[in-house]
Amino acid sequence: MKKIILIMAMSVLLFSCKTSSITDKKLDRTSQVAIKGNWTITAVTYPGSEYIKVNSFDIADSNCFVGSTWKFISNNNKGEMALTKYDCPVFSSPITWFVNSNGEFVLKVLDAGEKAKKVRAGYVLQVANQTENSFQLVDKINVGTKMTAVVYQFQKAN
């Protein structure tokens, strides 16, 4: 009898503990609406960039993202991104995205026709220095056991 009560108590504890997820957090609608529109990455900077190559979003070298075009639609959290730089891989993809209440930008790069709920991998970056015409996304990467900030500078397209 004691074993049954102990097992029931343990199962109640296990099921009552809810894990916290990035995707479960409340959205920051103000930041999302401010990001809505067409943007271009004007710079990608990080300490040691002259020595270290960063493969951004598992797509291409971070330098290939300078000049890339991004379209963000805030009412359905969809969009598109495309690499446009000469001597870089040709890449274009639909995306889904949102900004949570912690200022975290959650991004999924999709294959054509793929539903976002089928994609389990994504990227979480920090939104920084947001203005009407520019904002930054900051990614944290591990370089030789040291966390390094990779900053993507976005400028509103005309």
From TrEMBL:
<keyword id="KW-0732">Signal</keyword>
<feature type="signal peptide">
    <location>
        <begin position="1"/>
        <end position="21"/>
    </location>
</feature>
<protein>
    <submittedName>
        <fullName>Lipocalin family protein</fullName>
    </submittedName>
</protein>
